[in-house]
Amino acid sequence: MTAPDFHRAFSQALFAGPHEAPGPLAALTAQPGFAVHRNTVMKGCVDALEANFPTVVRLVGRDWFRAAAAIHATAEPPRDARLLFYGEGFAAFLETFGPARELPYLPGVARLDRAWIEAHAAPDAPVDLAWFAGLAPGALAAAGVAPHPAARWHWFADQPVFTIWQRNRVGSEDDGEIAWRGEGALFTRPAAGVTWREASQAECVFLDACTDGVALAQAAAAALRVEPGTDLAQLLAGLLRAGALVRASTANHGDRP
Question: Where is the Putative DNA-binding domain (predicted)?
Fold first, then answer.
């Protein structure tokens, strides 16, 4: 067995279920010490998921979360040694996880926990407010803009996911009734820390369009289709203040790994 084959078989054995057929390393995995190693690795994965999804943990409790995380880790082991990034598929897992059905907003909350991590770890890019301010009206419509590399956003059409996430993320004492309506969320990192705020559907659609590389006028038209009464000047100013937009030419030239 070559070294790459051994590493692959060893990794698969670590996450194999107790009733799965023995693999090519059956003699090794039968050793008592291997079970200790397997448990250590699994604990590391569950610990990483618990650290990466603190709002989900707060909503469901630590025991519930760790049991669910162990199931997810067995089915979807880490693919990156940096465990900060582990859990890319956790929200999708919660969508099909039977015990989570009574909490239909839980996958959305997981997506916002993930958005925080991605915003935190994303590269930097300059937000050139002077460039935007100096554009003539005609040039502004044709300008190429893009979401900042650290910007993350989600729109939830039927659930107040952002309000639920925010109250539990910061441990808010606000226990008032939550209006059951659609909400969006925007995460940015204008300075050293991640910030977040509620986002309109128009803002989310505008950012989606910018991701596709369209001119500002086309992104604005997309926003107006979902919210015809949108004040486009206010929308653009708000996204710029939040640090959510950059010139398209600088979007992919961050200076952080």
Answer: 7-94
Distance CA 207, CA 219 (A): 8
> Which residue type sits at 15?
F
Top-confidence range, 19-23, 114-118, 122-126, 137-141: 114-118
Of 129, 100, 90, 80, nearest in space to 243 by CA: 129
DSSP string, the chain: --HHHHHHHHHHHHT--TTSPP-TTHHHHTSHHHHHHHHHHHHHHHHHHHHH-HHHHHHH-HHHHHHHHHHHHHHS--SSS-GGG--TTHHHHHHH-GGGTT-TTHHHHHHHHHHHHHHHHSPP----HHHHHT--HHHHHH-BEEE-TT-EEEEESSS-HHHHHHHHHTT----PPPP---EEEEEE-SSSS-EEEEE-HHHHHHHHHHHTT-BHHHHHHHHHHH-TT--HHHHHHHHHHHT-EEEGGGTT--S--
Report d(CA 239, CA 241) in Å as an integer: 5
Burial 182-197 (b: 16+ CB within 10 A, else e): ebbbbbbbeeeebebe
Question: Minimum mean pLDDT among 16-20, 127-131, 189-193, 232-236: which range?
Answer: 16-20
Name the percent of the chain lying above pLDDT 70: 82
pLDDT tens across 16-53, in order? 655 554 566 666 656 666 655 567 788 999 999 999 99
Q: Which pLDDT belongs to residue 144? A: 85
Cα angle at 171 between 169 and 175, to 5 degrees?
110
